Amino acid sequence: MSSAYEAVFRRVLFPFYERGLRRRETLRYLAEYERNQWLSPEQIAALQWDKLSRLLRHCWDEVPYYRRAWSAVGACPDDIRSLNDFARLPLLTKADIRAHYDDMHARSRRGSMLYKSTSGSTGEPLKLGYTRESFERRIAVMWRGYRWAGSRMGRRTLYLWGAPVDGGITAHKLKDRLYHSAFNRRMLNTYLMADANMTVYADQIDRYRPEVIVGYVNPIVRLAQWLIDNKRRVHAPQSILGAAEAMHGFQRELIERAFGCKAYNTYGCREFMLVASECEAQDGLHTNADHLVVEVVDRQPVTDGSEIGQLAITDLHNLGMPFVRYLNGDTAVPAEGSCTCGRGLTRLAKVVGRTLDALRTPDGRVVPGEFIPFVFNDTPGVLGFRVNQRAADRLEISLVVDAGWGTAGEQRAREQIARVFGEAMAIHFVLVDELPLGPSGKVRVTMSDLG
Predict the structure, then answer these.
(1) What mean pLDDT do residues 238-266 have?
(2) Which of 320, 313, 260 is closest to 291 using CA atoms?
(3) Three-state SS string across 58-109, please?
(4) Where do the structural domains in the chain lie, given as residue ranges?
(5) For the chain, first and last CA: distance in Å?
(6) Which contacts (CB < 8 Å, 24+ apart) does range 233-237 have?
(7) CA–CA distances in Å: residue 227 to residues 223, 253, 257, 263, 288
(8) Are 310 and 299 in contact (CB under 8 A)?
C-alpha cells in the first residue's frame, strides 16, 4: 500500500502541488541534479566553475558589498580564473553580514526576496535573504540527498523533530497536519521527549510502521538507548537519517542495533539547507558540489594524519543575497579520492564542529539544545543569546538586545520555555553587552553544569 501511494505521490500529487498549485520548478531542478550526480569529478568541477564564474560577475555588478570587499584586496572577477584564485577572496562572516546587511542585496532583486532567521549554535540571530529559485533548488538537492539513504518523496516517514510548542489547535496546525499527511509522514515532537514517556514514542513507531525515520541525532540516540535498556523491539524501518548534529560512530552502532537498520549521516545548516549527505556506500558525505562550493579552509593537522578546517560555503544560485565563502561556524575533515558509489560529487570525511549541550527539565526530561535557537530566532530585539543550566530547576539566559526587546518578547520567550520545561523551571534573563567566546571561537548557545 505504501509503495503504491509513493508512486502516486511522486507522479501525480507532488507534481500537481509543485507545478500546478505553487508554480515552482522543484521537479525540473531535481531532474537536473539527479543527472549531475553521475557526471565525472572533472565534469562536475567544470559545471561548478561555470556557475561560480557567473555568480562572481553578478556579485561584482549587482552587490555593493562584494565590489568594495574584493576591490580592497585588489581582486575582480576577471582575476578569478581558478579555485586557487577564488581562495584569495575574503571570507564572509555573520558580523560582515550584520554590518553591511543592506549592501549584501543585489540591486535588481530587491523586493522579490524570501527571508528567514537563523542562529544555529552561535546564538546570534541573523536574517537571511534568498531567491525563489534558490529555495526551489535547495528543496531539490534535499530530496536527492535524502533519497541516497532511502528517504524518497511519498515514502512512509516518521520525523523525530522539534515542533512549535504553542498551546491549542490552530488553523495553521491543522494545515500542517494535512500537509504532512499528504507527504505520507508523521511528526513526533522531540522537545517533549522524556524517560517517562519513551513508551509513547516506541508505540507510535509500532503503530505508524514507518519505512524511514528522520530526526535529530540526540533524541534518536536517547530512544535507541532506552529501547536497548528496556529490551523493547519496535518496527524496523529500512533506514534512519540523522540531522542537526554529527552522528558519531558509537552512536550509529547504537541506533542500528536498537532499530535493526542502517543509519545515515546528513549535514545541513539553515543558511543553505542540505549541504552534504551519505550515500549507500557510507564513505563520507557527498557535498552538493553542483549546487554549492564547499571549502575547508584554515586547515590544521590532527592526530590521525587528516586535516580539519572551517567550512566556507558559497550558494551558486542565490542571486538575491549571495553568500560567497561564508563561514557558518562549523568545522569538517575533507575526504580524498572517489567514492565507490560512482558519483562524481566531492566528499567530506566528517563534519565535526556543531555541538549543543542538552538541557534537563525539573522532572528529569532531556531537551535537545536545538530548542533554544527555536525560541529566540524570531524574538524581536534579540541580537545574541546563551543558556546556562546551573541546576535542574534553573535556567540562566544571557541576552544581548537592542531597543526592540521588551516585555512582550520576554513574555513570549518565557511561555515557550515553560511549555517544554514546565512551570517549576525558574527562568532568569540577564542582559549583557556581549557573549564570551568559547575555546573554539564560537559562542556556545547551551551550556549545562549537570553533566
Answers:
(1) 91
(2) 313
(3) HHHHHCHHHHHHHHHCCCCHHHCCCHHHHCCCCCECHHHHHHCCHHHCCHHH
(4) 1-355, 359-448
(5) 46
(6) 233/260, 234/202, 234/205, 234/206, 234/259, 235/205, 235/206, 235/208, 235/209, 235/210, 236/260, 236/261, 237/158, 237/210, 237/211, 237/212, 237/213, 237/261
(7) 6, 14, 10, 16, 35
(8) no
Q: Which residue has the higher pLDDT, 433 or 12?
A: 12
119-120-126 Cα angle (round to 5) = 15
| Alpha carbon distance 414, 395 (integer Å) | 11
What is the number of other CB atoms lying within 10 angstroms of the CB of residue 53?
A: 14
The set of residues, in sequence order, having a beta carbon less than 8 Å from that of 10 and lying 6+ positions away, is: 152, 153, 154
352 vs 439, higher pLDDT = 352
Is the pLDDT at 441 greater than 90, yes or no?
no
Instruction: Identify the bridge partners of residue 116 per DSSP, sorted by sequence position.
Output: 128
Q: Which residue has the cell 539527479?
A: 34
CA distance 190 to 152: 23
Q: Strand 394-401: give its sheet, edge to edge.
A: 426-431, 394-401, 382-391, 446-448
> pLDDT per residue over 170-224, tens digit each?
677 788 888 899 999 999 998 888 888 999 999 999 999 999 999 988 889 889 9
Four-way CATH pick for 359-448: 3.40.630.30, 3.30.300.30, 1.10.10.10, 3.20.20.150: 3.30.300.30
pLDDT in tens, 321-367: 999 999 988 888 999 889 999 999 999 998 875 556 678 899 888 78
Identity at 211, one-letter amino acid code? E
The arithmetic mean of pLDDT across residues 159-180, rounded, is 76
* Contact by Cβ (8 Å): 128, 271: yes
**What is the C-alpha to C-alpha distance for residues 294 and 315, in angstroms, rounded to an integer?**
9
* pLDDT above 90: residue 429: yes
List, in sequence order, every residue forming a beta bridge with 276; answer none if it has no partner.
Answer: 267, 287
pLDDT tens digits for range 41-56: 999 999 999 999 999 9
Q: Which of 33-37, 111-115, 361-365, 433-437 has the lowest mean pLDDT?
A: 433-437
Instruction: Name the grid cell of 448.
Output: 549545562
Superfamily of domain 1-355 in the CATH hierarchy: ANL, N-terminal domain (3.40.50.12780)
